Protein: Phosphorylase b kinase regulatory subunit
Amino acid sequence: MGEIDIDINLKVSSYEETVRQLDIYYGLVKRQLLRFQSPITGLFPTLSNEERVASVRESIYCAAAIWSLFQAYRRIDDDRGKSYELGQSAVKCMRGVLECWIKQAPRIEQFKKNQSSKFALHCKFHLITGDAVFSDEEYNHLQIDVVSLYLLFLVEMITSGMQIIYTQDEVAFIQNLVYYVERAYRTPDFGMWERGTKYNTGVPEIHASSIGMAKSALEAINGCNLFGEKGASWSVIYVDIDAHNRNRSIFETLLPRESSSKGVDTALLPTISFPAFATHEEFLSSTTKTTIIRQLKGQNGFRRFGRDGYKCVLEDPKRRFYKTGETKEFENIECEWPLFFMFMIIDGVFKSLPDQVDEYRNLLSNVICKDLNGDPCIPMYFYVSEECVEYERLEPGSQLRCNSSEGSGGDEPLYLWNQAMFVISQLLTTGLLHINELDPIRRYLPSYNRPRKGGRYSAFQGTATDLVVQIVLIAESMRLQAMMATYGIQTQTPH
Structure:
């Protein structure tokens, strides 16, 4: 009996510790993410001090971080309303993006006929009104991977039981978004870095990261009932399997390259790993990851790609495009982005690579700063100062890099994408969130190992659904039932 008491006490203390840790992350999310969510559109800015422009990409990752904490809280019996608040905040963001795009529905019809950047859905909107803020001439909106990322997390969240899509009109619009990304394999876009080719001359190109993200989105959403368990046949999304196969073949042909101008690019990390898991060909995946690590990893983060001039001290911020041959100036002095340390941590958790997790957690710990609340914050990037440029060019890696003001602590603005990824990586590494809770549709598994969608709807591949065992405890008396209840164990009596 004594051993049972000890075991129960351990479970109770473990439960209380879990609640305490979750509450810490709840406070962090409230202060660093939810605080900057627009109360009207539900969108998030790129930087916490931005009051006008919301970014769809950052909004999706912020919603994913909030949703991941919501998933972690679902283990708790009484979370005092926190789980509901987190879940609805994620829904508000996803619906905010949806509403912004629905306003641009005519552009999709034009885009289906002509995959031109002038018909692309916008990736930046007004934080308060949800209106377009940059014209097609002012900003490179054609980013197939953003729409694909949205579809991917939409399916993940709906699968976890959240209600995001409300009407048949919205179902039809999501089906149109599928048509929008299906032709990714032959649609030159501006990619994750919003600049097109590495030369930054305003020219789009075919990006493996965009194609891979589209492939994953198509696999995820095919056969998905947008109304969840309450839906009918008309709320199911279908995908052209030929379009999927073309995306798959082109994507796997391009790897480990990102595009014709970029030999290797860290944009492929979220494509081959979380959240997309676009390929399960072990050779392709490991070769791509190894190439990225070998060529782009630094002490403070990963460079985005070779000769990337973004945020370098030599870059002229007043000019949108570079001159011919200007990228040569940025060789070996590219900025390093700690964001990808967190992608590598998450990758290590999903692939059960504890050494990789430890390595990148240690690297990340070296760059973490503290804000005025004492909360951890991660600088947006690290750059080579002007006086060190020549030394760094002569001997790459010899000079200490300076952290950007963004995300560097104190009263400096936060880079929300970093903070969102930090929350997700911490929840995973502390054991508060399981990979199946972060990826309910099991993208991390090969297609033949994923749970099959409900019988009568479309799915590319799959096996039998996961077996769920449910247990009911019967207490022999009311007294025993009351005693068990004191330990948080719910039982029923036979009478």
Q: What stands out?
A: Residues 1-12, 461-466 have pLDDT under 50 and may be disordered. DSSP finds 16 helices and eight strands in the chain. The first strand starts at residue 53 and ends at 55. Residues 265 and 305 are 5 Å apart (CA to CA).
